[in-house]
TrEMBL record:
Pfam families tied to this protein: ADH_N, ADH_zinc_N_2
CC terms in the record's Gene Ontology section: cytoplasm
SMART domains, sorted: PKS_ER
Organism: Pseudomonas segetis
Protein name (Swiss-Prot/TrEMBL): NADPH2:quinone reductase
Top-level taxon in the UniProt lineage: Bacteria
Subcellular location: Cytoplasm
GO terms, molecular function: oxidoreductase activity; RNA binding; zinc ion binding
PANTHER family according to UniProt: QUINONE OXIDOREDUCTASE (PTHR44154:SF1)
Length: 329
């Protein structure tokens, strides 16, 4: 099979398209023909060596799969060849998704929503699971609460807006002015141009000084230290960014704030919850660009570049028909 092999840590040119043996499923595992994958910040962080202690080289990386079951190992009961599936590979635990085939444990695989193409499904697995873990599991966002989502036009942010609205929250988000209408189309109630206005000032103005119940950090920087200024009492801050520099959180003490740090855990349950939202028309990923498996390096370079103008996700078509929705729709 064809696969993109990360030969060394470094820039987008570090990948090499190679022929490698097709994997064979063991007991409890499923062999999937990958129709599509996608690119996340985690992917270029792995490529440049941020997690070098956990990724022995050479390696097949990638963290999203949408495809069709090719074969199943002994003991698999939930899937048969021909099933359309989606999932996030177990991060740092075996080969990733930049390949024509992938093997995964049955327990982390879900049935792909029939209304999504493979490109769309592969653009939702990791970011959707991350948004669900952050807002539902960790922040415990409730009906009638308010949330500030940083980076609402990005891969995780544009999904988080839709999940938060489905949960009955009032959504504030920071985006560039060019993305105002896009954010509103996802369900954002208040959009803030982070290039022209301080988000804390905007939140306090829009909430009459009360603040929001939850801040969802997808951007890093000084968000952890500044978030308490925009929080209501007993507010929660959830971050998916690995921030190395120390930050002063003394302001959080006065708000009785709680902080949660999320690294996505794989399981079928989250995928099934996301599928329900998709089937009800409350959630749909936005694919902002599509590349081929051979052009993984170009896709990485685009996502990693600043001011790239992207909305949503960059998808990778591994199979030519990946753009098609299931035939049973």
């Amino acid at each position: 099979m064809k696969a993109q092999i990360l030969k060394s840590f470094g820039g987008p040119e570090s990948f090499e398209l190679s022929d490698v043996p097709k994997p064979v499923p063991s007991a409890g595992e499923v062999l999937v023909r990958v129709h599509a994958t996608s690119i996340n910040p985690l992917d270029f962080q792995v490529r440049r060596g941020d997690y070098s202690d956990y990724v022995p080289l050479p390696a097949i990386t990638g963290h999203d799969v949408s495809g069709v079951v090719e074969a199943v190992g002994p003991g698999v009961t939930n899937f048969v060849p021909g099933d359309e599936v989606w999932y996030t590979p177990q991060i740092f635990d075996g080969p990733g998704s930049y390949a024509e085939y992938h093997v995964a444990a049955e327990s982390i695989i879900g049935k792909k929503p029939s209304t999504l193409s493979h490109l769309e499904a592969a653009s939702l697995t990791l970011v959707g699971g991350t948004a669900w873990e952050a807002l539902v599991v960790r922040a415990a966002l409730r009906v009638g609460e308010s949330i500030l989502i940083h980076g609402g036009a990005g891969g995780v942010g544009h999904v988080a807006i839709q999940v938060a609205k489905a949960m009955g929250a009032k959504v504030f988000t920071t985006v560039r002015e060019a993305n105002f209408e896009f954010a509103r189309s996802l369900g954002a109630d208040v959009v803030i141009d982070y290039e022209k206005e301080d988000y804390v000032d905007a939140i306090l103005r829009e909430t009459d000084g009360h603040g929001v119940d939850v801040v969802f950090d997808t951007i890093g920087g000084n968000t952890l230290s500044r978030s308490p200024d925009a929080l209501a009492q007993l507010g929660r801050v959830v971050s998916i960014v690995d921030i190395a520099q120390p930050q002063n959180l003394v302001q959080a003490w006065g708000k009785n704030a709680s902080y949660h740090f999320v690294f996505t855990r794989q399981n079928r349950g989250k995928l099934d919850e996301l599928s329900a939202l998709v089937e009800r028309g409350q959630l749909r990923p936005h694919v902002g660009a599509v590349y081929s498996l051979a052009d993984i390096g170009l896709a990485h370079a685009l996502l990693e570049s600043r001011n790239n103008g992207l909305r949503g996700k960059i998808a990778i078509a591994v199979e030519p028909q990946a753009h098609l929705v299931s035939a049973n729709v």
